[in-house]
Design brief:
Number of domains: 2
Strand order of the largest sheet: 1-2
Helix content: 25-40%
Oligomer: single chain
Mean pLDDT: 92
Number of helices: 9
Distance between the termini: 32 Å
Low-confidence stretches: none
Strand content: 5-15%
Number of strands: 4
Structural class: mainly alpha
Radius of gyration: 23 Å
């Protein structure tokens, strides 16, 4: 999970259209009985295309891309229908077409056993139960933005990648799991099932492939199959690729890759033998100093 820069003041034109405005008005009257039209945020419109570009075709929560077999879908951060935590809450139906409430999530993070209609808030949060209206009975758009004080005061426990900084709440571990270091981080892992078996396996596989590559260089060097010069050159290229991967949005699991580079000793060196540890640790230190 990584922070996504979305401009809330610049929604796709279709969300500003007369047709969408009419749907919003209908939702205010019909509430959670409103038939939400996916035409304005579904598979065939500009909204999905913009979200796919923003999220680089990856899930907002697990960072899995479409090539990994998880279907991506446009989802509402605050559920448009009844929420699971409060049976008398009709859902945030007035946010059904709100740009700052739409994100791209994979079907596994958003399934019935995962996010779905869950939206817990902290005990000290103030749950919003009715739409904010102006004196003319129109929806107050400013108070519908995900970063409005009204909605921030709910103190949502589910992290919002378009507002929150995931690095303040989540850490990645060498075993492929994610650990929450705050209550919100723990709750997000639980809600989206971010430590599900298949996902942990995929993250661990990324690390293992790199570990194997590093060990091959070490074995070739220690068995005198390559010279020290070639060995250092190979390590330098390895470190450069690893560092670059932390900034390459085409990659899945970008935050994991950040941890692999900036917590290099924990992810790579600790898995090596004592002699190998000394060699790689010194080489990585030289690389960071620009001397390798």
């Amino acid at each position: 999970m990584r922070n996504i820069k979305k401009y809330f003041d610049n929604p796709p034109a279709i969300l500003l259209s007369d047709g969408c405005h009419k749907k919003i008005q209908e939702a205010l009257i019909q509430k959670n009985h409103h038939h939400f039209s996916s035409y304005y945020y579904g598979n065939k419109d500009k909204v999905r295309q913009v979200l796919e570009a923003l999220y680089d075709y990856k899930c907002a929560y697990c960072e899995t891309n479409t090539t990994a077999g998880a279907t991506l879908q446009v989802d509402h951060y605050r559920p448009k229908n009844k929420i699971q935590e409060e049976s008398n809450h009709t859902g945030y139906y007035w946010l059904g077409y709100e740009w700052s409430n739409l994100m791209l999530i994979c079907s596994q993070c958003n399934g019935k056993s995962a996010k779905s209609n869950k939206f817990p808030i902290a005990p000290t949060g103030i749950r919003v139960t009715t739409p904010p209206l102006d004196n003319q009975g129109e929806l107050n758009k400013a108070l519908c933005r995900a970063d409005s004080q009204l909605l921030l005061d709910e103190k949502a426990l589910l992290l919002n990648p378009e507002i929150d900084k995931p690095e303040e709440h989540l850490v990645f571990l060498p075993n492929g799991q994610i650990k929450g270091i705050t209550e919100r981080g723990k709750k997000t892992i639980d809600i989206c099932n971010l430590n599900r078996k298949s996902l942990v396996f995929k993250r661990k596989k990324v690390l293992h492939q790199l570990q194997e590559e590093l060990e091959e260089y070490l074995d070739d060097f220690l068995t005198h199959q390559i010279s020290e010069e070639i060995f250092h050159y190979s390590l330098k290229k390895f470190f450069q690729r690893l560092e670059k991967s932390t900034r390459s949005y085409d990659n899945s699991y970008l935050r994991l890759r950040w941890f692999m580079f900036y917590k290099f000793e924990r992810f790579f060196i600790s898995a090596l033998g004592i002699k190998q540890q000394e060699i790689v640790k010194m080489a990585f230190a030289l690389f960071k100093q620009g001397k390798l």
